Each structure stands twice: as C-alpha cells, then as structure tokens.
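Async update (no meeting this week)

Hi team, since we skipped the sync, here's where things stand on the single-chain job. The sequence we agreed to prioritize is pasted below, unchanged from the tracker. I ran it this morning and attached the output directly underneath so nobody has to dig for it. Comments welcome in thread, and please keep replies under the output.
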Amino acid sequence: MTEAWKEKRIFLVGGPGGVGKTTIAAALGTQLALQGYRTVVLTVDPAKRLAQALGFENFTNDLQPVNLKGIKEPKLFASMLDTQRYFDKVISRFANSETQRDKILNNRLYRIMVESLGGSHEYAAMERLLEFTKDNSFDKIVVDTPPSQNALDLLNAPQKLADFMDNSVLRWFQSSNTPFSLFRQGTKMAMKLLEKLFGSDFFRALAQVMDDLEGMHTGFRDRNLEVIQLLKSKATGFFLVSYPSEVRFNESSDFSRVLKEKGIPLAGVILNRLEKKFPKEITKTSDLSEESREQIQKILDYRYSLATQQQYWLSRFETSIGKTPLKCLEKRSEEIHDLETLSQIGEILLS
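Output:
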C-alpha cells in the first residue's frame, strides 16, 4: 500500500457497472482486517453479491462479523444498507418535536416517497457513512458504491435532498394558489394512478407531508455541508474501479471529471480483469491433429487480440491519470467466493 493509501480511513469504491467493485470492496476490507485494522464494509448496491464474496448465507442490514482464519477477535464486519431505516433516523434527528416526527413517520405517503424519491437511497448511504465515521471503534470504512451514474447520485444526494427541503419548495406545495386543477388537467393518466393509491385527496396528503416537514431544511443543509467536508477530507479516498476498454475508459473519464469538478481527489485507479498473457502462436506438436491445431490457434488469436487491445487502453488510462496510483488485477477463471482469494486480491491492492 502506498503511503497515501495508508493514511485513508474511508475507502469509497466506485466506477461503472460490471467491473467487480463489490469483490474489490470485499477484498480491501478483508486484507485491511488481516493487517489488524478493525474494518467495516458497507454495500449500497441493492444486489446481495457481497454476501457470497464474504461467505454469508444470509446477509442482513445489521452489522455482521466475518470469521477470518487465525484471528480470534472479530476484525471485519459487513452490512447492507436499509434505506427506510436510515431515512427514518434522519427524520427523527431533524424533527423539531416528537409530534412532528411521529406525524411524518406514520404518513403512508412519506413511506412511498422514501422508496421513490430520487436520491433517498443514496442519501441514506451518506447518513450511514457519517454514522460509521463517528464510531471510533472502526479503524477503516469501505463503501461499495452502485455503478458510476448512481455513484454520482451518491455524491449529489445530500445537495438534492437539501434543495428539496428548501423553504421555497415547501411554500410552493403549501400555497393555496398552487394550480392543482391545471396540474390535474395536464396529467389525467398520472392522477388516476395516484388516486388509486391514495384516493382523491392525494394533493391534500402531499401538502400535509410537506407541511409536516416544515422547519427541517436547516438540518438537511447542515448535513450536506458535513458530507462535502467528509468527501474532501484527507482521510477519505475515492478509488475508481474500471476495465481497460474504450467504453469503460470513456465512462471512467467522465466520472473522474465530475470528481475533479466537485473537488474530490482520486486516490487510486484499479483496472480489473486483465487478460493473462498467451503465446501468439501454438507450438508445434505431433500430438495434435491439424483440425485441433487450427481451433486452438483461433482461440489464441482472439486472446492475443483482446490482450493487445487491453494494453492499449491500459496505456490510455496511465496517461490520463498521471501520478494517481494504478493497480492492475488479472482475470480469474473461477468465481471469487472465499476469504482466502479475497485476501490475495486485497494483498495485491495494498502492496
């Protein structure tokens, strides 16, 4: 591990979909724990792939200890994100009274909003991360983020929720002059669906929810500033996971640009699933028929061509990231689902 990586307490693992972020997050967490750090891995990906990687049969939202060979006291913990639970905690924290809190939490429209409101899942992830950072019992925190577009949502969520909670928005919904009648005329199909769910008093219910949220915008604004400060902290490292191809290079370039615009430094780039080196031509042998040699040569031609393309895009990555640390991981033929393999990958990443 480079000295810069050693200083990090928070490891945000992000990038485009399908590049192995979950496995790498699990590998980082495993190796950090084996090095003696009390580590927690949080996945905000709705899929439960991390459970398989860490050997869980059932993966819950609660902290679960991972049994590491040779270590008696638990050093590694993992958890899924419970969006509803942590959004409820946000409401409880920012509510001005128990009455306001209970009115919101017991409102069925609020429950639907948490599930469907853009950014609520990502906001809950940031809330959970902040909670972990204030828990001094954890030395290292690893966050497995969703695919890149959602990962950007993860970074933008606190600002979006703060904007949504702004007084001007509340006043718009609460205003008696709000043109609900025009809105109904323009969206009759939507209104029919909403009325099936909530009855004809949908807008009245919506106005009630927004009225109940009155006065909480300051808390969301302050939380947004706290998240921004955390992401820009020297203790936080954003690690971009990708794959050496044109599509992934372009996606990663866009992602890196957004990070730079937000003033969030890129701590490292991890290129995953690189092809192993194969000979360009099959060696001459009398044990193979001409047909078999031709088939094997076709496979070698394909693998050699793929590896050559990867090397080109690898060089493009190296040029684009400059002095940012780069780690490369070879493609594995088997599925990664055991702690020993995760430890081996983690050792490469942290070497």
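Quick observations from my side:
The beta strands are 10-14, 39-43, 64-66, 76-80, 140-144, 236-242, 266-274, 326-330.
The chain has 16 helices and eight strands.
Reply here if anything looks off.
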